[in-house]
TrEMBL record:
GO terms for cellular component: membrane. Residues 12-177 form the FAD-binding PCMH-type domain. The keyword Nuclease does not apply. The lineage of its organism: Bacteria, Bacillati, Actinomycetota, Actinomycetes, Streptosporangiales. InterPro entries: ALO_C (IPR007173), FAD-bd_PCMH (IPR016166), FAD-bd_PCMH-like_sf (IPR036318), FAD-bd_PCMH_sub1 (IPR016167), FAD-bd_PCMH_sub2 (IPR016169), FAD_lactone_oxidase-like (IPR010031), Oxid_FAD_bind_N (IPR006094), Vanillyl_alc_oxidase_C-sub2 (IPR016171). It is an enzyme of class 1 (oxidoreductase). Pfam families: ALO, FAD_binding_4. This is Xylitol oxidase. PANTHER family: D-ARABINONO-1,4-LACTONE OXIDASE (PTHR43762:SF1), L-GULONOLACTONE OXIDASE (PTHR43762). SUPFAM superfamilies: FAD-binding/transporter-associated domain-like. Keywords: Oxidoreductase. Its EC number is 1.1.3.41.
């Protein structure tokens, strides 16, 4: 398999000597117990080597699909390799919902949680904040369960980068199903963010800003309102006018793959993502980076980006700005602070993109930016350690669960060293 398997974007060829797809947790435990080096492949939507392995690469997509609802407890147990689109559809059929979705519903549940992936909304935490229980296979091949409120290390075991074991299932909090209406507004002046950022981002259940970092306008506001929430003013939002037809985040690209807009109500899982599950948005012709910043420092950070927008724009397809609430998960980019994510979808040209990512890292460094774990970044391990108060706690947890480094790879060693 080596030399043939790539990630979704095609910018990484996995170096694994073998790829296995166990059909049961017992079979998976046997693989993990006997192998020297193991990493887990989710949906392949990471843009760096977080999932790569010098030994065996394990796909959990072959494990039996599980969507086991406990209505009395308000939770659902989900197989790790399932995609959010399928989980969400099944929950909605039962009158239930997750609190949020990422922009792409195609991604796997366990992979998204492990890297701190998120949706948007002033009152919404990342996808990982829904987790109440983690089931995983440890380095010895044992199956263990770590529960919120019962295990001191729970907050370190959720966003864990695959470094503690192979996650087989996650139990997530659920709520009642709800309807969402999505509207797009165009032409928001950048200067409106200085005076109205909080009002704009709190104007709906989920809000995204899209910009190409040129000129004096942000570009688009995507507002996703729960049915029953107040209507957005008919004349627009702080100078941005309502779109008269469906839009793609990238101006000029067809909106056929995007979720329903123009205020048409629909199920939560068909509106909270930006893209429909039946379509592949870009066929992987892109790279991605995201920096997550303290909400309290976002305005000077945005001005710092505007100061270098002439370097950003030539290699950019689109940039998205979203908000999420603080959490307690040790390696979550939102740990300890309400957060704003500034996401960059680049052209697929690593040589041209990396210097710009490094430049952005330098300019956002004074604002304590944390990179998304699954995307392209150049931030040093020393810098990251200074920005995570539980960095050493997680390192200790990793040594406890995996003393031999079975689940380590080049990515983990860059962050935490070789011990």
């Amino acid at each position: 398999m080596a030399g043939r398997l790539t990630n979704w974007a095609g910018n990484l060829v996995f170096s694994a000597s073998e790829v296995v797809r166990p059909g049961s947790v017992g079979e998976l435990a046997g693989v993990v117990g006997r192998e020297r080096s193991v990493r887990v492949l989710g949906s392949g939507h990471s843009f760096n080597d977080v999932a790569d392995s010098e030994g065996v690469l394990v796909s959990v997509a072959g494990l039996p699909e599980v969507v086991d609802v406990d209505s009395a407890a308000g939770v659902v147990k989900v197989a790790a390799g399932m995609r959010y689109a399928e989980v969400a559809r099944r929950l909605d059929e039962k009158g239930l919902s997750l609190h949020n979705m990422a922009s792409l519903p195609h991604i796997s549940v366990a992979g998204s949680v492990a890297t701190g992936t998120h949706g948007s909304g002033d009152g919404n935490g990342s996808l990982a904040t829904a987790v109440v229980e983690v089931e995983m296979v440890t380095a010895e091949g044992d199956v263990v369960t770590i529960r919120r409120g019962e295990h001191e290390a729970f907050d370190g075991a959720v966003v864990a980068l695959g470094a503690l074991g192979v996650v087989t299932s996650l139990t997530l909090e659920v709520g009642p199903s709800f309807q969402v209406r999505q509207q797009v507004f165009e032409g928001l002046p950048f200067e409106a963010l200085d005076d109205h950022f909080d009002a704009i981002m709190s104007g709906a259940y989920s809000v995204s800003l899209f910009t190409q970092w040129h000129g004096d306008t942000v570009g688009q506001i995507w507002m996703k309102r729960r049915d029953g929430d107040p209507d957005v003013p008919e004349d627009g939002v702080f100078g941005a006018a309502p779109a008269t037809e469906p839009r793609h985040p990238i101006p000029g690209v067809s909106a056929e793959h995007c979720t329903q807009q123009l205020g048409v109500p629909g199920p939560w899982h068909e509106r909270l993502p930006h893209f429909r599950p039946g379509f592949t948005p870009s066929a992987g012709e892109e790279l991605q980076t995201e920096f997550l910043l303290p909400r309290s420092r976002i305005l000077p950070a945005l001005h710092a980006l505007r100061a270098i927008q002439d370097r950003i724009a030539p290699v950019l397809q689109i940039s998205e700005i979203r908000t999420m609430t603080a959490d307690d998960l040790w390696l979550s980019p939102s740990q300890g602070r309400d957060t704003v994510g500034v996401h960059f979808t680049w052209i697929k040209d690593t040589e041209a993109v990396i210097p710009v990512v490094s430049l952005i890292d330098d300019h956002l460094g004074p604002y304590d930016a944390r990179p998304h774990w699954g995307k392209v970044f150049t931030t040093s391990a020393e810098t990251l350690r200074s920005r995570y108060e539980h960095w050493d706690d997680f390192h200790g947890l990793m040594r406890h669960h995996d003393p031999s480094g079975k689940f380590a790879n080049a990515y983990i060693r860059r962050l935490f060293g070789k011990d």
